[in-house]
Design goal:
The structure holds 2 protein chains of 2 kinds.
Chain A (H helix, E strand, L loop, with lengths): L1 H18 L9 H4 L6 E11 L6 E7 L5 E7 L3 H6 L12 E8 L6 E9 L5 E3 L2 H5 L3
Parallel strand pairs in A: 3-5
Antiparallel strand pairs in A: 1-2, 1-4, 2-3, 4-5, 5-6
Chain B lengths: L1 H20 L40 E4 L20 H12 L25 E6 L4 E6 L4 E6 L16 E7 L2 E7 L19 E10 L2 E9 L8 E9 L21
Parallel strand pairs in B: 4-5
Antiparallel strand pairs in B: 1-2, 1-9, 2-3, 3-4, 5-6, 6-7, 7-8, 8-9
Classes of the chains: A alpha+beta, B alpha+beta.
C-alpha cells in the first residue's frame, strides 16, 4: 500500500512538471530538443520547406572562426503556422534571420525555432500563437 | 440623379466584388462560420443557448478544441484517482524517462481515444441523426471516428483498431459514447499513460450552451489501472476557422533513433 502511495505521489509530481510542457503539434518538443538550453543564432536561409507534419528551414551559420555550417530548424505544422500568420512565402533563400530556439538533444546541427526575426526589417514571426501568449 | 445613384451603386458593387475576389492567404482559416449566434459586434456569442437538432437534442456539431490537456489528461485529478498497475506503471516510467520519444503520434499514427481530442489542433464533430452516425474529423494527423447511433452493439472480438469502435445513445441531453476494440499500442496522453486491448472508454458529451461543452471521459482498462477513472474536459468552439489538410507522412523528419 505504501509503495502504491509513493508511486502515485511520484506520478503526481511528474504530472505537475509536465502540465506546463510547451505545446507542439504532433510530437513532444522535449523528446528531441533541450528546452533548458535556449539560444539565438543568426544566418542566411538556404531552404524553406513548407510541409507537414512540421515545417523546416535551413540556414547557413558562420562561426567565429569563419567556418559555415548548415543548420536545420523545425517549426510547428503548416496548420499552426498559418493560424499564427505565416504563409508558404514567409521565408526565402537569402533571407538573413536571427532564430530563437533550442538545440537537438542528439548534438546534431538541428534545432527547434520558437521565433525568427528578419535582420533587415526587424519583423518577428512566432512559431505558434501559443508562443506569443506563453514565451518559453 | 437616379442615373448617378445607380452608377455609384454599380461602382461600389464592383469594388466590393473585387475585394472579395482578391486572394488572401489567411482567407480559409479566417472564414466566417455561418449560422452561429453572434453579439452585435459580430463576436461569436459563447453564452447563447445550445443549438438543437430536428430531434430536439443539443447539437454537438461544430469545430471544437480542447486546450491544456495534451501532456497530462489527469492534471485536474487528485492523487490516488489514477492508480496504475505495476506493468502499466513500468511502461509509463520508461516513456517519462525518454521524454515520450516513442510517441506513436510523432510517427504519424492516429492518436486513439481519447488522445485524438488532446492535440492543440481542432476537430469537427458532425452529428447526423438522419444517417444515424456521428463523424468526428480530426485535423491532427488527419484521422476520423464514426459513432453509430442506429442501435447496433459493440462488435464482439473485432480486429484491434487505433480509434476503436464506437456506439452512441442519448441520456437526457447528454450524448453517451461507448468505445472499445483497441489494441495495446495506444497512449492515453502525450506523457504516455498506457491503454491496453482491454480499454473501454465512455464519453459523455454535454453541451451546456453555444460556447461550452463538458465531456466526461471514463477510462476503464483493468489491465492498466486498478480502477476506472474519469476526467471532465472543457471543449471550446473554434469558430471562424476551418480544418486544414494535415498529411503527416508528407515530410516526417522525426528521428528513428534517440
Amino acid at each position: 500500500m505504501k509503495t502504491t502511495r509513493l508511486a502515485t505521489l511520484a506520478m503526481f509530481i511528474v504530472a505537475l512538471a509536465f502540465a506546463a510542457a510547451p505545446a507542439f503539434g504532433h510530437h513532444t518538443l522535449v523528446a528531441i530538443y533541450d528546452t533548458s538550453k535556449p539560444f539565438t543564432m543568426t544566418g542566411t536561409v538556404t531552404m524553406f520547406d513548407w510541409r507537414n507534419p512540421h515545417v523546416w528551414f535551413f540556414m547557413d551559420v558562420k562561426s567565429a572562426d569563419g567556418t559555415v555550417t548548415n543548420w536545420g530548424f523545425e517549426l510547428n505544422g503548416v496548420n499552426v503556422l498559418r493560424r499564427a500568420g505565416w504563409t508558404r512565402d514567409s521565408l526565402k533563400a537569402g533571407d538573413v534571420l536571427t532564430v530563437e530556439g533550442n538545440p537537438a538533444r542528439n548534438g546534431g546541427h538541428t534545432a527547434n525555432a520558437r521565433a525568427i526575426t528578419f535582420t533587415n526589417t526587424g519583423q518577428k514571426l512566432l512559431e505558434s500563437t501559443a508562443a506569443a501568449a506563453n514565451p518559453q | 440623379m437616379e442615373k448617378i445613384e445607380s452608377l455609384i451603386r454599380m461602382i461600389a458593387g464592383t469594388a466590393l466584388l473585387l475585394v472579395f475576389a482578391l486572394p488572401s492567404p489567411a482567407q480559409w482559416v479566417n472564414y466566417k462560420t455561418p449560422g452561429i449566434p453572434r453579439t452585435p459586434d459580430g463576436t461569436p456569442d459563447l453564452s447563447a443557448p445550445a443549438p438543437r437538432t430536428a430531434d430536439g437534442k443539443p447539437d454537438i456539431s461544430g469545430i471544437w478544441r480542447v486546450n491544456g490537456y495534451q501532456y497530462n489528461i489527469g492534471k485536474d485529478l487528485k492523487p490516488g484517482e489514477i492508480v496504475m498497475l505495476p506493468e502499466a506503471q513500468a511502461i509509463y516510467n520508461e516513456r517519462r524517462e525518454t521524454n515520450s520519444f516513442d510517441n506513436p503520434w510523432a510517427r504519424c499514427f492516429p492518436g486513439g481515444v481519447p488522445r485524438a481530442f488532446l492535440s492543440p489542433d481542432p476537430f469537427k464533430i458532425l452529428y447526423m441523426p438522419v444517417l444515424k452516425v456521428t463523424v468526428i474529423l480530426f485535423e491532427a494527423v488527419q484521422t476520423w471516428r464514426q459513432i453509430f447511433t442506429d442501435g447496433r452493439e459493440l462488435p464482439r472480438d473485432p480486429d484491434p483498431a487505433y480509434m476503436g469502435y464506437s456506439i452512441g445513445r442519448w441520456d437526457g441531453d447528454t450524448f453517451v459514447v461507448e468505445t472499445a476494440g483497441f489494441h495495446e499500442k495506444n497512449w492515453i496522453d502525450s506523457a504516455g499513460m498506457p491503454g491496453s486491448d482491454a480499454l473501454h472508454v465512455t464519453e459523455r458529451f454535454h453541451r451546456k450552451d453555444f460556447g461550452h461543452m463538458e465531456v466526461a471521459i471514463t477510462i476503464n482498462d483493468p489491465k492498466s489501472y486498478a480502477k476506472p477513472w474519469t476526467v471532465t474536459l472543457p471543449f471550446t468552439p473554434y469558430p471562424d476557422d476551418e480544418l486544414v489538410e494535415y498529411v503527416c507522412n508528407e515530410n516526417n523528419r522525426y528521428p528513428t533513433a534517440k
